[in-house]
Amino acid sequence: MTILQIRTVPDPILRRKSRKVREVNDAIRELAQNMVATMLEAGGVGLAAPQVGELKRLIVLKLPEEEDARILVNPEITRRDGEREVEEGCLSVPGFLGTIMRSERVKARAVNEWGAKLRLTADQLFAQALEHEVDHLDGILYMDHLKSHEDLVDLSKLEESEHRHAFEVEVEDEGLMKSRGEKRVLTAGDMQDGVAEVKAEKIVGASETDLEKL
Ligand code: NI
To answer: What range defines the domain where residue 198 resides?
Structure first.
């Protein structure tokens, strides 16, 4: 298995539309296996073929609670229900995190690596990852769904300001949060006399923290 190079913005291939896979053959299976290895190495939840430079409608997903990765060829979302706000990121947009709306539930169809037809019903992270990866096949990145540029967070700047102690925040017991698998994401702060007033703060679940890696 080969670890492939993950293309990052502004690589123009990320903006192109991928073509349908006509035949699920050994070459597709090999590409899919290499994509799975690349996704796992990067600690990701999902990866789409254009992210490794192949304009093919092929995605791989590995949800944290699942043992095996899924390989989905020619995935199509056939139904979307509900809306929810999520924190999301992408292996092709390293160091950023954004707040966007995704569907609560989706239905999709695809074929697997052996050409068998699949029908999927997904919610939570699975639904979010499916929407994110299918978007990649159409040249769409999650930032395209931001309501405003302020909903995009530069994680390096966030860490930098934390290192400079630019803001002090009262939070509930960090140890308790950790035991629940949560982390804190600060989204905005105003400085006054060296102490920041945090205007927005989100506690996100552990599975959602993995979303910087879709
Ligand atoms: Ni992505």
So the answer is: 154-204
